[in-house]
Amino acid sequence: MKLYSFTCLLPEELQMKYYESIIRDGFISDDLWDNINDYIKSTFKKVDNLEDEIKDVLKNLNTDNRKVLYEIIRSNNNSLYQSISSKLLNFEDIVNVDSKLLKTVLDKYSTEDVFKASMASSPKVKDIILSLIEERDSTNIRKESVPISEIIKIQDRMIQDINDISA
């Protein structure tokens, strides 16, 4: 069993009780299992903001599974499908964005931020981005490593801007 992958869903108090019981007894009591089940039911049985949660799930799926989930959404919740199918979910999807819209968004960002955003992208995305900002002066751009968290933060802001404009 993968203890960590299971327990990371639990609050720290339940995690520690679970570990203690497994370490001490080799299993967990029915009472503790009931507490864990109650927590899981209260947390995961109903989703408060379905659209945001599904977008987050879609962002983290591979392409094949994303297509399957889109089809499930389309078949079962057309309004949700209409709402999220037009949204950009990850940075690589900007290849499908109208170049004028993309340029409008990129123009809001410094040259340095645009370069940073392109660092963790495919060659195709990088080519599209750089072609849209080629007139900018890039001589002062620092060619140093950038933490991936900073790159993703810039990419996420760009994705949000694209979604806001195209809404």
TrEMBL record:
One matching Pfam family: FliG_C
Coiled coil segments of this chain: 40-67
Key words of the record: Coiled coil
Domain Flagellar motor switch protein FliG C-terminal: 73-159
InterPro entries: Flg_Motor_Flig_C, FliG_a-hlx
Gene3D superfamilies: 1.10.220.30
Top-level taxon of origin: Bacteria
Name this polypeptide is given: Autophagy protein Apg5
Organism listed in the record: Anaerocolumna aminovalerica
